[in-house]
Amino acid sequence: MVIQYIGYKKVSILNRKEAVNPKNRFTRIFKVIKSTMVNLLLTNAFPQFERELQIELTKRGILKEYKKGEIILKMGQPFKNAYFILKGCIKVYRENTEEAEFVVAYLEEGQSFAVSASDNSPLSTQCSLVTFYAIEKTYILNLPFNDKDFLAKKFDSFYKYILTTAVMYYSFFLDIIDYLAFKKLDVRLEFFLFSLSRITKKKELHISHQEIAKGLSASRETVSRLLKKMVAEGKIKMKHNEIEIISL
User: Fold this and answer.
1) Cβ(176)–Cβ(221) below 8 Å
2) With contact defined as beta carbons under 8 Å apart, do 110 and 116 qualify?
3) For the sheet containing 138-144, what is the strand order?
4) Maximum CA pair distance of the chain?
């Protein structure tokens, strides 16, 4: 056995065969580092999961990195895994045949989607009704449905998390219906900017009038007029392709 040092910790990770073959050696080291990274991200994003559950998720899940602007799952694609957001922000939206876009929600680290599906449920063969889009570098743990079902049976806390998430999304979509049916565009615009600021944890939003209009399924002219009104009310400040939140 060959001893390797990672930081200040002594870790026995190489046998003699790996020490002789550099390729095996670095592959093993990479796996250890990647596993450590997943573990740290999981602990920060889902601190409510007990240690044993986090270890199981690290072992069974697949870490995926998405660059800013990359599509994670496109509308019409089938669900293949449960998705746990470990770091970053995701925009969830629908498109029509004319590529008009309506933003449904923003998701952040510590949240998940498709966790209610399983290999035996209709959702596992259903195509996504929305598109999931990374608005910044995002890390997601993809967990196969059979592994998710196994862990839900093994860990009561994980089973309760799945049920709670399902109820939360049901309530959320009821709120969306109310939001669309009863709220005027100026209220929807304020909510849109507030949500984006909260999710990204930034007061300065790098977003154009056209992008906002697309997300709200409104005309650019109408959005620009409402933004100017918000400036006059002291709620925001505007620069070129940047909106600073003052008071929402």
Assistant:
1) no
2) no
3) 62-66, 138-144, 81-87, 112-113
4) 71
Q: Choose among 1, 9, 67, 15: nearest CA to 33.
A: 9
Residue 118 burial (10 A CB sphere; 0-12, 13-18, 19+): middle
Residue tagged 């005027």 (tokens): 184
Q: Is pTM beyond 0.70 here? A: no
- Alpha helix segments (H runs only) across 129-155: 145-154
b/e map 167-180, b = 16+ CB within 10 Å: eebeeeeeeeeeee
Q: How far is CA 95 from the centre of its chain?
A: 19
Tokens of 61: 């899940």
pLDDT tens string 154-206: 999 999 999 998 888 777 777 777 766 667 888 889 888 988 888 888 899 98
